[in-house]
Amino acid sequence: MATVNRPGGADGHVCGIDTAMEVIGGKWKVLILWALHQHPGRRFGELRRLLPGVTEKVLASHLREMEADGVVRRVSYDEVPPRVEYSLTEDGVRLNDALQPLADWGRERAAAPST
């Protein structure tokens, strides 16, 4: 699902964060990125097991969107039964690397005592 650009610069973006949010927006996309980083070359069912709570419909939709955005690679093998594997593209790896400080912040926040 392509997000409609907001007014701003020539391409409709105000800063790089809104561009990135178009790619990672949604509850599951960041978790899909992380799962593919930790477990590259996974099949659909394997990804679904790595992400408890995600529905088949949402996972399939997000994978299609992420493939269209160039962060996920889908490889279909001509076999019986058919086999399809998902992995991160170079842009997907770079995006995941950019998310690492956010993951660190989240872990620190979760470990900190409540105030």
Break the fold down into its secondary structure elements and pairings.
Elements: H1 16-24, H2 29-38, E1 42-43, H3 44-50, H4 56-68, E2 72-77, E3 83-88, H5 90-111
Antiparallel strand pairs: 1-3, 2-3
Domain HTH hxlR-type: 15-114
Pfam families: HxlR (PF01638)
Keywords: DNA-binding, Transcription, Transcription regulation
Question: What brief labels describe this structure?
Answer:
globular, three-stranded antiparallel beta sheet, 53% helix, 3 strands, 5 helices, alpha+beta, Arc Repressor Mutant, subunit A, 115 residues
Compact description:
With 115 residues, the chain is an alpha+beta fold. It is built from 5 helices and 3 strands.
Description:
There is one protein chain. This protein starts with 15 loop residues before the first helix and ends with a helix. The chain has helices at 16-24, 29-38, 44-50, 56-68, 90-111, and strands at 42-43, 72-77, 83-88. Strand 2 and strand 3 form a beta hairpin. It contains 5 helices and 3 strands. The protein has a single domain (16-102), classed as Winged helix-like DNA-binding domain superfamily/Winged helix DNA-binding domain (Arc Repressor Mutant, subunit A, Orthogonal Bundle), CATH 1.10.10.10. The mean pLDDT is 88. It is globular. It is an alpha+beta fold and 115 residues long. The chain is 53% helix and 12% strand. Helix 2 (29-38) crosses helix 5 (90-111). The protein has a 3-stranded antiparallel sheet. Residues 15-114 form the HTH hxlR-type domain.
